[in-house]
């Protein structure tokens, strides 16, 4: 398998150093094969239009890139550590198949704008996937609410009973919150939806390219004009994506916290079916809400990914810096964690039960203290006095 | 000065504990006096409409609240530590002036929705201020670019000369990036622009209120219907605001890093006027770019504020928790730091100079290596071969 | 009041820029007056020994510095914003009192090593204070344990009843954990206990100083020899201090979480006296554990301070950078929050009660399932089989 | 291959849920096989001593566990996803080889203390490895300093020339800082060096065990007595380890930042050999310091791992929570990143060169301004006046 790096000058790189610089790119990049092929196809067509490649050349490149894309979909495409990344792997394969023509695909392009183009396409797909999964989660909440919505149970503040609440109110809150997350996802999509292709290494390229054509071909809403901004926006877009993912995860963290506490047998408002719980290796009676605990914990994971990107992005001179390479993994892991969590949470809602009896039992008289005060208000007493009257009932000296 | 807390039941609180729980609220809340008055006025009018207060009562309350607002604008309103927060301070003052009527303002309201309403109004104002200051920063960049835009200087990647760049390109990148920040600010404004007033402590109130009326009166785009979501969104909205502020600060961090390095006498592309530099107490020759260093550092400050909110918000049971009180300070400080930084950065751009000679001197032949390679491409050589030919010129064995 | 900055060259600094660079130093530095006086006294004596100052001069300086120290202890010393920091304020006062002699104190010193010396002394005092308060917290736990230690209550895993536990076991865990924190505090003290005085701006000073003398005079365990390391260690020492503080806060976060949940009336194992709870402005029955919630939340505060320092410290060129100035506040706030929290937690333990009846009621049969399995093991059945036998009792189909 | 989970009760777990809960444990745990075997051997021997297992049984178990350990060292041991983790995989293998006896190894043990024991042994080994690699890095610095130490070059503050420095001073600072890191590593080792084995699920086990024996057998310095603290210390120990790793990484971040800037051709004090640089796919002249950039960036990676653990650990009820499972990966990755970085940095120092001519050329007259002022001081002028005299030379009006 050929392994000529795109920047190879014939000087051998120190082996250990190479390991260090390649890192996990050759693994992570497996997710980008499809997108790099699509972007390369658009670039080839554009080079054809500009007269830099002949029509026959374009066709050959496009065919071969489609081949690679198919191979990848069948799980037959691999990137070796020596090849370092998807971009080298694909160009090597093109050159093997098409000879010198393979090398021409890189005309008017740098790895910098190539990487970003593939990543943006990947981001767009995954943001869309998050929107779709968020909607499915909302559907699951609606369905849960239609089953149990009418059940009244105590609402809590400060982890103490406060006032009457209901399953409908609780589910509705989660729905509204996820709805706002979708709004944020859509705003982020708009941000990300700018084509970086054609900006070279961050200072343009010395030949004329039709950037509008590639942007359109790839389905980008617009061209990101300024090549320096293209580079500056790396880290920015990534951390905005991750911020929004933390918001989705926070919703699930809060819902999971509710379910963990409200399904304690001591309260028992919610019940988790056995197939959603795990046991202990020493305590035979245990049915543990591991799934919920992991949903809760994974919020912090995604928060730390966001921090990772924000830490890496600061105090750097304008223009591409290799540091930025490390922002790829946290975003990919962020999407993976969030998408899996949304799926699991929706599935969980399908099995979740509300214990009507326990909910009713929970509605002790103190839950109605505010109603009691307002009844006094309706009888003409000022709220402050009504409050003091009722509060006395609940104050024992200790 | 009366200091009856809104939840006072006549049991003395441990002094040291009280200090601990009040924290800095009584200081921070000085920024909220205006907003709490405005919100209380809307609430009073609505209570009037619902027949809970008489017209004369409403008028008295509105007058007194306007008085307090004016006092505050004149710097004459104070909140004592004993009063704990702005809400108690205002209600105490109302009661002092109007007797029992002062206590009626809290009918149909909890401190929970009251705090959130004041905060939302404060957020809206400050987001608007950030948008305005961002635009002024863009104006400063345009003006800087119109003075020096034509100057060509080396563009860097990996902190190494890469290809020719220009002041216009550099300024343009900062402008486009700030433009995207404004888009994010506007998206955040939409999120925040929901009226929480009328949701009580998080489970509604047992009397009928006209939430649309107060929302409209206060200029909110819509009513945030679900009372549980109102509470859940605390922390969410705050961290979204702070995320966007980190993006503004990141832009300034990156610009400051450029200016610090590019104004090193060894490079000298940029020059900072003496009145923007500070000296050393031991080294007489020093002119240090402290302003730029602080702009750089303050990015990390705001990132940590965002983390603070995200840390506090996780693993909590639904419904208000006192933990949330601590999210007030990071947002306030976040706005303060960002607004001041934008002002300072714009001011700095006004004094910043570009050294044309140094820029020219920086344009050594290696900066044009890519152009050289593309000249060979135009003569029919494949890019890969052209690259290898040119790269040989810059490879010395060592 | 004279306001000549130590690096003043007669060029006016832009007003707004000055505000930005001074920041809150003039407020924060009030905590450093004492330490800067002590350090300056040691420095003056050393200059005397080296023959740079005459004995009479040294005496005058020492007297005046002692005066300033006393003034500060009486709350009569102030730092104006114009003076920027404590170092300028003190030198200005010396010059006012002693004329030209005041200016001589800065011989062989830079603000860089001066700031660090004052900070290190301040750190040492506060680490010692944290150790002392941690020990008091341990005393409070011992006292609590001696009152209630014998009470058996359910131990939880996964927020589910697991096996029998006891107040003694619970208190003991908190004690052991705090003991390990003290070990960490002591290790940190060793790190911090190095004298930076005499390293100038980070590259030494061009005259001979007796660094051992000042180190000894100030009670430092050793001289921090390398002047570049003195600067590099800023940020390092600060973040190590803050890390240890987060560990103390984590212990309290976990204890607070336990108390919040275990004092829910639904479980009721612990009881918080009324004077440690607060009420709601709308719900008359509420007694909220605000103190515990704030203890819980403040962990995240200190974590974010640590992150602040770690964010600021990265990607900087060796040698002092103004960015480092911003590490002062997070450490100071970190100490303040931690010390206050330790005091409040110890005080709280004094009032905390255990409800013996509720604890007993909580010991349902499932808590003894493991004991049950081990009884079977003692009768010769393998643990795996015993486990399966007992687990069947607790498995209902659902 | 048998896949009976240690807590299996015969109820099938939802497939998707299972994927979610298992996560990457079955991959990460490959690093723990050795340690789990060692710990199980000690546990078996102790059960023998207590009369719970017969001598022959102990011998069989020890032999088989040694077999597994060897298999693992030869890379022949695998953990299937179904088996979930190393503990199930090993017990399954024991049962397959030894029948019912395999199940007896879990007597008096829970997965909770089993996991912690394996992890602690793994931590101890890796902390020792970090100490060893830190010392090798120090050796590399000494060797670098002995080659180039005498070269004088400008020292910088505020990214501006300040005073003369030298390679010896610079290397010495990095050495001293790494020495302090070693001190911190050793303090952390003491903390971690406590045996958790024998504490069961966090509330002890209902049979008598000899915890001192297993602790001694495994080389732990002491027994961690309190079983609740054993669980509480998870997260604490992990974040302390990660904090110390961030300090090592910070040192390399700062050194890398120096080298990136000081090896810019515009300054040129340092030179990186070609085999340590990488090229650009578009710019033929480029030799980029990717290795240094990645060293710089990886600091932020480890900082985010620390945050991950600190985020996950907060707001949890005492006793094991599944959340804690997620702290395994960040620590493992933290060790991996740090160890690899130390190796690469030491290797890099071997190839690093100092350009004597460029260093000399950098020593412009302003670098000596402080010396100049002190020469005036020696002639009897006060430092403040000398400072002002010299500073005038470097002040041009602009």
What does this structure look like?
- 4 copies of one chain form a homotetramer.
- Chain A is mainly alpha-helical and 398 residues long.
- Chain A folds into 3 domains: 15-104, Fumarase/aspartase (N-terminal domain) (Fumarase C, Chain B, domain 1), CATH 1.10.275.10; 111-208 and 215-361, Fumarase/aspartase (Central domain) (Fumarase C, Chain A, domain 2, Up-down Bundle), CATH 1.20.200.10; 365-394, no CATH class.
- In chain A, 62% of the residues lie in helices and 5% in strands.
- In chain A, the strands form 3 sheets. In chain A, strands 1-2 form a two-stranded antiparallel ribbon.
- In chain A, a hairpin with a 2-residue loop joins strand 1 and strand 2.
- In chain A, helix 7 packs parallel to helix 10, helix 7 (111-148) packs parallel to helix 12 (328-351) and helix 8 (167-192) packs antiparallel against helix 10.
- The longest helix of chain A is centred in the N-terminal third of the chain and has 38 residues, at 111-148.
- Chain A starts with 14 loop residues before the first helix and ends in a 5-residue tail after the last helix.
- At the B-C interface, helix 1, helix 7, helix 11 and helix 12 of B face helix 1, helix 7, helix 11 and helix 12 of C.
């Amino acid at each position: 398998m050929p392994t000529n790096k795109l920047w190879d000058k014939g000087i051998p790189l120190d082996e250990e150093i190479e390991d260090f610089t390649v890192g996990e790119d050759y693994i992570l990049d497996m997710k980008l094969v499809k997108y790099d092929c699509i972007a390369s196809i658009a670039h080839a067509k554009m080079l054809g239009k500009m007269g830099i490649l002949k029509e026959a050349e374009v066709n050959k490149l496009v065919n071969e890139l489609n081949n690679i894309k198919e191979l990848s979909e069948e799980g037959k495409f691999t990137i070796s550590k020596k090849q370092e990344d998807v971009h080298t792997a694909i160009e090597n394969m093109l050159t093997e198949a098409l000879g010198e023509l393979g090398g021409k695909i890189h005309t008017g392009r740098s790895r910098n704008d190539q990487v970003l183009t593939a990543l943006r396409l990947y981001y767009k797909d995954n943001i869309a996937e998050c929107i779709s999964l968020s909607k499915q989660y909302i559907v699951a909440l609606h369905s849960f609410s239609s089953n149990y919505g009418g059940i009244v149970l105590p609402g809590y503040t400060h982890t103490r009973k406060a006032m009457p609440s209901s399953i409908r109110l609780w589910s509705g809150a989660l729905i509204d919150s996820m709805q706002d997350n979708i709004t944020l996802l859509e705003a982020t999509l708009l941000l990300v939806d700018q084509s970086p292709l054609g900006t070279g290494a961050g200072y343009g390229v010395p030949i004329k390219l039709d950037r509008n054509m590639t942007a359109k071909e790839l389905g980008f809403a617009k061209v990101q004009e300024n090549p320096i901004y293209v580079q500056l926006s790396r880290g920015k877009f990534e951390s905005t994506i991750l911020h929004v993912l933390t918001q989705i995860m926070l919703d699930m963290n809060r819902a999971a916290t509710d379910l963990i506490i409200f399904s304690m047998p001591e309260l028992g408002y919610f019940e988790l079916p056995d197939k959603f719980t795990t046991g202990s290796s020493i305590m035979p009676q245990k049915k543990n809400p591991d799934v919920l605990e992991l949903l809760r914990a994974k919020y912090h994971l995604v928060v730390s990914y966001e921090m990772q990107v924000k830490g890496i992005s600061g105090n750097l001179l304008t223009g591409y810096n290799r540091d930025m390479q490390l922002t790829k993994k946290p975003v990919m892991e962020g999407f993976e964690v969030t998408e899996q969590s949304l799926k699991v949470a929706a599935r969980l809602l399908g099995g979740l039960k509300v214990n009507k009896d326990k909910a009713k039992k929970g509605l002790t008289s103190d839950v109605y203290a505010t109603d009691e005060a307002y009844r006094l208000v309706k009888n003409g007493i000022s709220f402050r006095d009504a409050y003091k009257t009722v509060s006395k009932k609940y104050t024992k000296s200790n």
